[in-house]
Amino acid sequence: MRLFLCMPLLAAIPGIAFAEPLTFDAALQRARQEAPSLKAKALGANAARSVRGAAGALPDPTLAVGIDSFPVSGPLAFEPQRDNFSMARVGVSQDIPNLAKRHAQQARADSDIKAAEADTAVQARTVEVGTALAWINLAYAERRLAVLDDILSGLERVVGTTPGAVASGGARPAQTLAGRQAVAAMQDRRSELVSNVARARATLTRWTGDPAPEIAGPIPDFAVDAAGLRAGLDRHPTIQMIDAQAGQADADVRVADAGRRSDFGVNLAYQRRDPRFGDYVSAGVTVSLPFFTRSRQNAGIAAAQANAGRVLAEREASRRALAADLDADIADHVMHHEQWMRAQSTLQPLAEQRVKLETASYAAGRASLVDIADAYAALADATITTLDREALVTADGARLTLTYRSENR
User: Count of CB atoms within 10 A of residue 224's CB?
Assistant: First the structure.
């Protein structure tokens, strides 16, 4: 009963979590929800949407208050009450940019929203790929450790029989030292694998925010569709982000071009004089005169057009780089798969067979403990090499599919 009552309190204490082990898909989902970098990009997109409402709006009106025709010399100097020209003035004015400029400002705000959303999509892809690789790395790090523990256990069993063999005269006393050295060397390797597990877990913590993530479920198997990935490169988030930047550059060209057109303004003022005289009302219109377009507006238009051309060139460069990276990664994936198949079908079975043969020979007195230790060390190398190559193939599949795909998984 006390434990039941304390559970809400325990759940509220930071660092105490009752989360279940993370499957691959659950890890990706948590990363999408918890990654601070993705939250930052999403807030940037929200900021761009908030600014859109003010784009193209008229500027704020201006209030003016002053005194007109105040005498400062002559017989009526500093005596405005004797002068019929002195008056207090209050007025308001409103600038009205030309319609083309206002529409261009709205287009620029729309392009800013698209650019922010595209930037968010790029970051989401980065988070997803990083989380996937971290989960896969942790899964294989734990498998390597488990496999080495099995091999180490087998070696320790064989080494444990050495004292009896020495007592019966079937082995030399020095062989006990060789066995202990072999076990110590494999324990050193185990320490490295334990460190690798901790490092992989720390990387997964970075993406998911889980302070002590535990994984569960099958390791994903991604089928790489090379043709489909190549066909979708133009819809890749990186390319779409550059397309959004091209939209910003085009909007800047429109804003610069609108500068060649006249802007307007209106003003209204009320002028108060001495009660003995009448008051005045003034109204007017202002029009900007872009006479020097060659040295002013045209220069800005040329700069904006050059920037738009730069973005288009960068898009082509980025697409070529993306296509080259994809082809290189596919070539590596094919190589890694062939090496994995070779290790799985040849290297590891031969190492396992060698252990069996050496163990049988040792039992028959035809092999030494050194031969046994060498065979187990070779088996550890072959088994971990097979897992390393399998991990590369799995990571390649995840990286290729998640990095280069054009649609959400």
Answer: 19
